[in-house]
Amino acid sequence: MNVVVVGAGSIGSRHQRILKQLGHQVSSASANSPNADFRLLSDALERHSFDYAVIASKTSQHFQDLSTLIRHKFNGRVLIEKPVFEKPYKLATDSFSFAAVGYNLRFHPAIIWLKDALPKLGKLSSANFYVGQYLPTWRPETDYRQSSSAQDISGGGVLRDLSHELDLAQHFFGDWQRLTAIGGKFSDLEITTDDTFSILMSSAKCNVVSVHLNYLDQIKQRHITVNGNNGTVSVDLVGNSAKFNEREVKFAVNADDSYISQHLAVISSDSKNICTLGEASKVVDTIEAIEDSAKKQRWVSR
Question: Are 211 and 67 in a shared domain?
């Protein structure tokens, strides 16, 4: 395929590298990289025909980039990095042949295993999602203070950066019914965004769902635990392992695998594990509700 990747930061560069390894023709569009093939997405669309567009610009730029594709009547495949937007937007009608949002963690083999294991637990009672990683060590080649994660204006902050867990909670348990949250910037990191959030919610499929996200853990952690009438399942996404009660499963995974699987799914129109634009928009709405709850110190109901 002929692919254009918008954005030349760490995630845009990763998409470029992976798509080239998969044998596709890849062009880049970025106003911030001297090595980009085009400064603007509109320039790329006017000069070339593309089969696949990957939006990996700053979150705050996503709506404008998607609107550019729609305005140019782009009818190929589209992948937008997560979160889809920094706040709720309403897009004009598009003519995309296939569209997905980059919640690639859905393609991690441990997450696929967990999705298959949940029905075996019987009635679910509680679930816990925890993710923490020290922001200054995320991208060793970049000053964390200059990253999009550190800046409100770029659509950064722990709720948006680590929204995989919010997507997975929705993916596994459906829409939340009510939630409450506490969060903010509680550390001495030199950022203008929130670095910690804890959320408690309930859904029809699970009575208690807790989600904790932070930029602070200097021991990187990412795990999920779910309790049901028939036992407990747990997944360690750093150690690439899972347990159903005492039975343990190990997974052989490298850092690119879930991205590769996601691209292959978009290219083949396989929607099984894809996050749709509609689902991703619900995550944005959830983030708005979480921020509202934390600000007003109250429960929020749908």
Answer: no
Q: Report the alpha-carbon angle 162-165-171, nearest 5.
A: 140
The 3-state DSSP class for residue 66 equals helix
Q: What is the pLDDT of residues 179-212, one digit of tens each?
A: 999 999 999 999 999 999 999 999 989 999 999 9
Establish if 259 belongs to a structural domain.
Answer: no
Same domain (yes/no): 95, 109: no
Residue 267 falls inside a structural domain: no
Q: Which residue range(s) make up the domain with 30?
A: 2-101
Number of neighbouring beta carbons within 10 Å of residue 118: 18
What pTM does this model have? 0.95
Distance CA(87)–CA(149), nearest Å, equals 15
81 and 109 in a single domain? The answer is no
- For the chain, the domain total comes to 2
Of 101, 118, 138, which residue constitutes the final position of a domain?
Answer: 101
Q: Which helix (H) or strand (E) is 242 found in, with range?
A: strand 241-244
Asked if residue 7 is part of any domain, the answer here is: yes
Please answer whether residues 198 and 216 qualify as being in contact, where contact means their C-beta atoms are separated by less than 8 angstroms: no
DSSP annotation string for 195-236: -EEEEEEEESS-SEEEEEEES--SS-EEEEEEEETTEEEEEE
Give the DSSP letter of residue 245. Answer: T
> Both tokens of residue 83?
């979160």
Q: Quick one: which of 57, 290, 58 has its CA closest to 152?
A: 58
Give per-residue pLDDT as tens, 148-179. Answer: 888 877 778 999 999 999 999 999 999 999 99
Residue 212 lies in a domain: yes
